[in-house]
Structure formats: structure tokens, C-alpha cells
Amino acid sequence: MTTIYIYPKANVGLRGVAIGLDHKGLSLQKFSTTLKNKLENYSHSSCRKDIYVDVCDGSRSPEELLEKEEALVLISPYLKKEVKEMLPRIVVLTEDEFFSVSLDRIYGLIDNL
User: Fold this and answer.
1) Is the model's pLDDT at 46 over the cut of 90?
2) What CATH code is carried by the domain that includes residue 76?
3) Could you name the domain of life of the organism this protein comes from (predicted)?
4) Residue 24 CB contacts under 8 Å (≥ 6 apart), including other chains
5) How many domains does the chain have?
6) In the chain, fewer beta carbons within 10 Å around the N or the C end?
7) What DSSP designation does 78 have?
8) How far apart are CA 91 and CA 89, in angstroms?
9) CB neighbour list of residue 49: distance below 8 Å, 6 or more residues apart
10) Which domain holds residue 9?
């Protein structure tokens, strides 16, 4: 099974303060939740039942997420400075991708998994 991790926030500092933009307002879904739903719908519509989409809380680094299994990590565009190492399976999203406006590049990555 392949996991797609959406990494909307990162914990930084000694106390692990979460940084990153991931909310639309008080009563609306988070950006990461909307993106997760769209990616799940795409994977199911393309008959890829072996793909699981998860939103990370930022407690583990993107590199740690890749160690245990076959995975793709999608990083919020507001966290690109926090990513220490860019690996082929770590993708920094554009703002349009993070806001679920244009997902063609991400759909292509899912098709190649």
C-alpha cells in the first residue's frame, strides 16, 4: 500500500510550535482536508484502491515518513524553508495545488506510483 502524506504544518522550536497556514475560517474545512478529499476521490475514480491519503500533524519530519514505507510527501508551500532535504518523493506544492485549484501535476505523480 502506498501512502500520500499531506504535510500542512511543521513543529518547530523547543516546545514544538506548529507553523503553517491550513485554515479557511471558523466553520470551513481546512485546506489540507479539502486536498485530502480530492486526492482520495481521484485515486478511487482511477481504481487505485492501494493508495491511502493522510494529513500529518507535523510531529515527524518528511524524511521519517519516507523511511518506513513507499510514500509520497506533499509539503505546504509555506513550509519549503523547513524542509531540510529534498528527496524524489518529497514534493513542495504550489499555492494553487495546496488550495486545490490545480492538481494536474499531483494527479500525474499519483498515476506514476
Assistant:
1) no
2) 3.40.50
3) Bacteria
4) 30, 31, 34
5) 1
6) N
7) G
8) 6
9) 43
10) 2-111
